Every structure is written in C-alpha cells, then in structure tokens.
C-alpha cells in the first residue's frame, strides 16, 4: 500500500526538492552577475538599476530585475521602501569577497560557471549516458576551463608554497639547486607559476592536452623564464626525460585522466629515484557512505556532469570519476611501480588532499 499523499515524509522531501530548485536558479543568477560583470560593477559602489545598466553595459530593465532578485535572495541589500527607480542596491563587503574578488580564498563565482558549462551540454550528456560514450573537456568550453583556473588560482597563489614547505621531504626536493619540476595537467598554469615563484632556483615544466588552457598559461607566465609549457599527454612525460625531474605534481587532474596508471608509470620513470611525486586530488571520504557529507555530494555532482563524461570520451578509459578514494589512488600507484600513496599532513587546503607516492 502506498503512503497517502499528505504523508509528512512526502511533504518533507518535496520541500527538499523545492529548495534545490531555488538553489539551482540562484546559482545561475550568480552566473549572470559574474559573466556580465555586475558584481564587479557593484563592488564598493552601490547602484540603482539605471546606474548598474550604465556601468555594466546591459539593458536597464534586465538590470532592475536582476538587482531585485539578488536582494530577494539575500545576496544584495536594499531599502525596499524607496521608489523602484531610486533604490540603491549594495553588495556587502563580505559578499564581495565571495563574488567579486578573484584573489580571495573564498571566491566562489567560478562555481556557477562550472554548473552552467555542465548544463549547456545536457543533450550530449543524455546521449553519453545512453550509449556509454563521453563528453570531452573541450566541449564544456571557456566556462568550465576558466572556472577551474579561477577557482584554484587564489589557493595556488597564496597557500601552495606554505603547504609544500610544511612537508620536509617535499620541500627539500624542491629546494635543490637547479631542481626540475613537472606539473602534469597544469591547465591555466597557476600551479606551475606558484611552484616557480616559491622555488626560485627551480625550473618548472607544465604539461596539458588542452591547447586553449595552455595559451592562457603562457600569457599568465609571461616574464617567468624558468617556466615552460608543453602540449603533451601525461603518459608521455618520460619521453626523453628519464630521471630528469626532482619532483612531479598532478594537481586535481589525475581522476580525469583516462589512463592514470600510464601517467603515474611515466612519472615513476621521469622522476629521479630520490625525487618526489605528489598528487593533489579531492578530499573525499575513505569509503562510500550514504548519505554523504557536502564534499561527497558536490564531488559526485562534478563527476556526473563533467569529470566522468570527460574521462569516458576517450576509448579504453578506466573511468575513475571525481570521487577517487585513497584506496583507488594507492592501487593505481602500485600498478605504476610505487609502493603506496600516503596522505600528507596538509590540511585546510580548500577541498583537496595531498598524497605522496612512495617508491
């Protein structure tokens, strides 16, 4: 017998779904504010609808609707008693750090871009789910590419050096005179640049298969002579570079790669026997548990819409997905010739965990 329609559990779950609807709509409203420059136009300077339209170059009617929606959502503040044309909307300083300050560790506007990128490929995702195919990273476009780069940049800029310096074995390898470092899956290059800036006697090679991201990386690194970028798959890093590197890193990319064992095997060959190989990936739980915590929930979300379809767009992919648990990484590491993958004592680095691959 089915429960009656007014059952408390039914009503409670219907409310949960409605709350998720609101969240989805509001994250897309953040996308508009981010991509149209509306938050930046409001940063430190309240505006009426007409003033915002003028500053950002958008239509005044849309400006008024967006401003009112943002105030109703609690993202902006406003005096609702004033005449509609005279209302000045304010982006509070705390909200500015989250929505309009790309140097802030809590900068979150890029998250909306990743959601929008995934939503733009829903027809392709439906086909992939039915056929077992995939949706390659390039198809998600600049929204996804820029979102990943911009989201991670403040952490690499301000926290990576300290995090690595806190682990003596890693710091010592990076501090060698004339050290060579490989950064595999470098994307926009912010991790590559951060490594070069933190260790001024080292040279750093960034590797990636996303040509547009590498173009951006080269622009970002302009003037840094010790940084080079290469359009090359991780599986080929050791080609002509046997035992060339003192250290190698894969920052939030191994779970996307169709052949992680091949990549780690290449790093095992490319890094000197006394060097270090460090993997930074998502700080997911040790084992599957349901329901999960917010980190598990968001990582499975990324996996459904971006990471798993991207990986499966390559024939023969092992299809790891975003939720790569330590046991999975350790298995890949052992298959590649390492002894184990050991979590490093680096905490509070966004939603990431660092692993040292032991020889």
TrEMBL record:
One of its GO terms (biological process) is methylation. Residues 181-275 form the Methyltransferase domain. It holds the Pfam family Methyltransf_25. InterPro entries: Methyltransf_25, SAM-binding_MTase, SAM-dependent_MTases_sf, WH-like_DNA-bd_sf, WH_DNA-bd_sf, WHD_Rv2258c. SUPFAM superfamilies: S-adenosyl-L-methionine-dependent methyltransferases (SSF53335), Winged helix' DNA-binding domain (SSF46785). Transmembrane segments: none annotated. Keywords: Methyltransferase, Transferase. GO terms for molecular function: methyltransferase activity. Residues 29-99 form the S-adenosylmethionine-dependent methyltransferase Rv2258c-like winged HTH domain. It comes from the Bacteria. This is Class I SAM-dependent methyltransferase. It comes from Microbacterium allomyrinae.
